[in-house]
C-alpha cells in the first residue's frame, strides 16, 4: 500500500478502508511517511471529508499509535469530560470533586493551556506545593485510595495526534470535523474512561461559532465513541461570553472554591451563576451515564445535594492534600493563593446595558498580563488575570466597575484597554440578546 495511492484515493473523493487509514497513520507516527505526504493527505480529508466508518477507523488508528491507560484496576464506571475550549471555563476544578462526592471514581488526565489562559494543570499548580506530575502507578493508586486524581499524562498517549495536530496547525487543515473529532476522541479513548461526556462550546469565544457547526462536531464525536464501544454523549453549552467571572489561574481556583463553598462572592468579585449551572448539568449527565441515577433529572438532584452540603468542597480539599498542595486553599483561598501586586478597576463611562462581552478579548487581556502562554515553553504567572463584574444583560451606571485587572509588572495598561473594548454597552431601548446556556444535547442512538 503506497502512501501516494491513499492520498490520491482521498483526493478523488473515495472512502478509505480501515486498513488504508491504519497503514497511513501508523506509517506517519513511525516516521515512515514524511510530513509532506501527511500534509497532502490532511488537505484531501479537509476538502473531501470522511464518513462515519472512516472517522472511527482514523480514531482507532490514532489510539493504537501509542500507549493506552488501563484503568481496570479502579472499581466502578470511570467517567471523563472534555471541553472543546473557551474562556473562564473553570468547570473541571468544580466538576472533579463534585463527581467524587457522588461516589464516581475520577481519574482525570488534564493538559496545560496554550493561548488565552492556562489549562487545568496550570490552574492547579497555582495552589502552593500542589503536584500534578504523578507516575501512572501513583495516579491509579490515588484514585483507588481516595477516589480522585487529576494529573498530567505520563504515558505516551496518541503520538500520531501530536504529530498530525502540529502539522494541521501549519497547513490550514485544523477546521475539519472528522479531523477534529478523531483528534479529540483519540485522546479521550486512550485515557481509558468508560463513559465520556463532551462539552461542546458554542459562540463568540468558542471554536464552533454556531449551533449548527457545534452539533455536527458533537454528533461526529458521539458516533466515534459509540462505534468504539464507549458510552459517549455531548452537551452544547454557550460560550458567548466567558463562562466564569475569573480568567486567570489562581483567580479561577478561587472562583471554583467559592462555587464549591456555595458562596456568591469570591472575595474579589461575584461568582458566575452560569459556571455553577453548566458544571451541575455536566455532573448530572455523567452520573446518569455511570448509572448513579435513572434519569438526568434525578442525577441533578443528587449533584445539587452534594454541592450544597459541602461534600464536594471536602473532596476538593482531600484531593489537593493528596497531591501535596496546601488544603487550606479550600477555606481561605485569598490567603493561600498567590496574589498580584496591582488590582485595578475598569470603569464604565456611560449608562446603558451590556449587550456583548467578547471572551476572546478578555482572554487576550489575561494572556497579556501573563496568565497564558504563546509558546509551549513559556511560564505562566499564576496570580494575574481579569475578573468580570458585569455580564451581558447587566444595567450599567457611569463609574460602575465592569471588570478588574489583577496584574504584576506586565501589560497593565494595554490589558485595561482591551478589557474596556471587550464590552459593548448600549443605551436606550437596546435589544439585549437572550442567551440560553444549554443549546442542545447529543445522545447515542439506542
Ligand atoms: N482540539 C484538539 O485536540 N484537536 C483538534 O483537532 C482541534 C482541537
Ligand atoms: Ca505550585
The tally of domains stands at 3
Radius of gyration equals 22 Å
Which ligands are bound? uracil, calcium ion
Q: How many strands, what sense, and barrel or not for the largest sheet?
A: 4 strands, mixed
CATH class division of the largest domain: Alpha Beta
Give the % helix.
40-55%
Strand and helix map with partners:
Elements: H1 3-11, H2 18-29, H3 35-48, H4 52-63, E1 79-83, H5 91-101, E2 106-110, H6 120-124, H7 136-146, E3 148-152, H8 159-169, H9 177-190, E4 195-202, H10 211-227, E5 231-238, E6 246-247, H11 249-260, H12 273-289, H13 296-308, H14 311-322, H15 333-336, E7 342-347, E8 352-357, H16 359-369, E9 385-388, E10 395-396, E11 401-407, H17 412-422, E12 423-426, E13 438-442
Helix pairs in contact: 1-3, 2-4, 2-8, 4-9, 4-10, 5-11, 5-12, 5-14, 9-10, 12-13, 16-17
Bound molecules: uracil and calcium ion.
Uracil (URA) binds next to α9.
Written overview of the protein:
By secondary structure, this protein is an alpha/beta fold. It has three domains: about 5-50, Up-down Bundle (Transferase, Pyrimidine Nucleoside Phosphorylase, Chain A, domain 3); about 80-155 and about 165-335, 3-Layer(aba) Sandwich (Pyrimidine Nucleoside Phosphorylase, Chain A, domain 2), CATH 3.40.1030; about 340-425, Pyrimidine nucleoside phosphorylase-like, C-terminal domain (Aldehyde Oxidoreductase, domain 3), CATH 3.90.1170.30. It is built from 17 helices and 13 strands. Strands 1-4-5-13 form a four-stranded mixed β-sheet, sandwiched between helices. A four-stranded antiparallel β-sheet has the order 6-9-11-7. A three-stranded antiparallel β-sheet has the order 10-8-12. The radius of gyration is 22 Å and the shape is globular. It starts with a helix and ends with a strand. Calcium ion (CA) binds near residues 125, 128, 129 and 130.
